[in-house]
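Why this split exists: single-chain examples teach little about how molecules sit against one another. For that reason, every record in the complexes split bundles all components of an assembly together and asks for one structure covering all of them. Below is a record exactly as it appears in the raw files.
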Amino acid sequence: MNELFFSYIEGRSVLHRLDPRTKLVSVMLLSVVVLRASSFQDMVLLSSAFLLFALLAKQGIKHHLNSLRPMLLFFIFIFLVEVMFSESEGSFYLGPLGVSYEGLWKGMLVTSRFILLVLFASLLISTTRPALITLGIERMLRPLPLSLLGISSYDLATMMSISMRFVPLLHESLQQITEAQVSRGMDLRRNPLKAIPSIAVPMIRNTLRVTEDLAMAMESRCYQGAYRTSMLELDLHKEDWLSLLMLAFIIILFFYSPI
Amino acid sequence: MSVIVENVSFSYARKTQLEQMVLDKVSLKIGEGEFLVIMGEVGSGKTTLVKHFNGLLKPIFGKVTVDGYNAASVHARKLVGMLFQFPQQQLFARTVFEDVAFAPSNFGISGEELRSKVSWSLKLVGMDEKITSRSPFSLSNGHMRLVALAGVIAASPKYIVLDEPFTGLDPKGIKELSKALAQVHAMGVTIVVITHNLDHVLPSATRMVFMGQGKIAFDGTPDNYFLSTLPQIPDIPLLMRELRRCGVKVKDQIFDVEEAFQEIMRIKRMGTAHE
């Protein structure tokens, strides 16, 4: 058993009931807003929006915060990159490194943006069944002339949903391999050069094996990527339109806030 | 000296909606030289329990010590070797030698001592020393598993814990692995095996633990286990139990088809002589 994150959690909240397209559009729009956010007030507003949605999803914040854990190293990395490569003059020194308050602020801003992006994505995934996400993406992409590129909306949607489904699986596999190597005395901090291959090689082998198994299982069940009928038909309800209106309000507030 | 689990409780995904108690105030003492078999249904907490033996998981409540050391310490990790399910998937090195040498070299063993440890452990699991220069990925599934076991033995642990080691092995692989475990146990190493199929370890098992819903439902000898009403009793001991229940005086410690056949024939001969 594992600590779950980036997985669907069964529920009957308002967010669970919304059409997947509503949630997908909302997350996309919110991502644009998050990437445009540049002040402390913006961040407070967006964090409040996230807390409100998490409350509506009735899942508790801890599950979503768990989704940040695998990306902790990435967050630290982008924070340090922003701090170190900021163009402004150093306000104080950490050893040979000149650090400016502006650099620190930029680092915090960029890191907060990524954290919010992950949190909104976690909200989407935890309240929408993977099959519905695929269906939603497929329905949104269907009008596009993708056949000119030699692909179909079904292929793209399936690829996206499989990628999302693989995140917790890969994390579980990573945890199992790390535990096995730690039991054999591996110390990632003391000897990373020796430790990394002992994790990376089995990880790559296992991932290739799992993807190959999945491809074969899909082919065995006659998956061909062409037009497929669906058990579920999507339909936008009053709740969806209301949610989109509420989102539009948040976006207007964000862009035209008097503060 | 022993592994002592005192009142250990554990749950995954703490303080979330998914939180579920996996271990509920479990206490267990594993003495030196035992061959302990842990059984139980899926999700009963077997793997979670053994992951506490070398500090991979830390209890929320309670304490785990190995020969007096805290289970999460480096000392304890050296004493407890762990082989997870599908251990062949954890092999990574270019050669069998490098893979088997991984654990002992991590614990500071090098040079001639390392070489002799590798060849000793490969011999113990019944592998030919000639394979040391081969890639572990060129071996069969069963042999890869034996190499992984050799990799654990090479670090000379006092306790070896194996989580469902027989899953996915063919009969030949099962036989080889059972033999290797019996040999390692005969050298004085304490063995703890999680399994759903008792047949593979019965001749060596000295103690049985059955887990259910995060608690220990049974802890005793295999013979007492077969007298219980717990599930997962293998066919032959079950047959012997039913024969005893019907008044047939069959001997104890009969575990396989051959022994059962001989015993039934013996009773038949006695019956014929009596007539």
